[in-house]
Write a structure and sequence with these properties.
Aspartate Aminotransferase, domain 2; 7-stranded mixed beta sheet; 2 domains; 3-stranded antiparallel beta sheet; alpha/beta; 12 helices; Aspartate Aminotransferase, domain 1
Amino acid sequence: MDSNIIRLSKSVLDTEEAQAVSDVILKSGYLGMGKDVQSFEKEIQAFLQTKSEVICVNTGTSAIHLAIQACGIGSGDEVLVPSLTYIASYQAISATGAKAISCDIDISTGLLSLEDAKQRITKNTKAILYVHYASNTGDLNNLYSFAKSNGLRVIEDSAHSFGCEYKGKKIGSFGDITCFSFDGIKNITSGEGGAIVTADQNIANHCKDARLLGVEKDTEMRFSGERSWVFDVKNQGWRYHMSNIMAAIGRVQLKKFSESFCKRRIEIKNLYQSLLANNKSIKFLAYCTDTKVVPHIIPIIVPENLRDILVDSLRKNGIQAGVHYYPNHFLTKYKTDYSLPNTESLYKKILTLPIHPDLKDDDVKYIVGTLIETIKRAGIE
């Protein structure tokens, strides 16, 4: 890729991660799931300041899949989920045999509309997969009250919100089940990877076994440097465990998050908002006032007839832009026979700007300048 292009997102790694991987390869000689994974789990637990269990897996999608399965959800069951999310959320649901029930969003936040979700509850509804879109938590107290009154489990798809806080508590330190993603462009990365965080010991035990092909208590053996040779399997399992190599990268990234990544992502978000505050053509999503947002993506809302013009102009000026996301209820596999007006409206107006810890203030100013100049030329308000 052209080094002069301003990337929409990127992995930010250096010699520290390389050294950590080298240590695993050359010193331990064991690349699978072992003590590095155990250490990463404990360090995430300490970072979150929680007693809940942390179970690391190979992707964020795997984390959601295992969480849903651990709730006993499968064929014939339904899971409420906002359509405005990455396809991974839906595939994780359908992987269990359950049906993803597409719900509309609150157009000001991009988050699941509980009013719409309420209309879609049936006797088969078992859970809500609540997506923290653009690192926004929304009113989690209201979410959990809604879930409790309807007898639903809550699985928080927190792929965007590692390091974020709600009412002074880190996401993952409370609630029912939280799933993180550590893929290459998330707030921290382990190359690929994810984690399930829960205080429900039954859920935790299921996920620990299921990530290792359902082999009972194999986690304890792996962490002690051994593996199970005579064992029992009672539930469907998958090869979803995290490797020591991935954990080694993640451990360095977790340290960097606290030292610099968190602060830098917030600085970039604040700079965008400051520079665009007086532009009538550009709006930002509304964030819950009780939330500390550490942004994974920076979506802006622009007039529908301006969105593609801006994307093209940014591209021509060496700036990547994105559109998060194409609604899942438009996809053949998950197509609905009903419309979701807020989702469909917001999708046509959303545009995602670059953010990653390597982005410079001058880059942000150049991006904003390109946006403003393009809007002036277009003459569209």
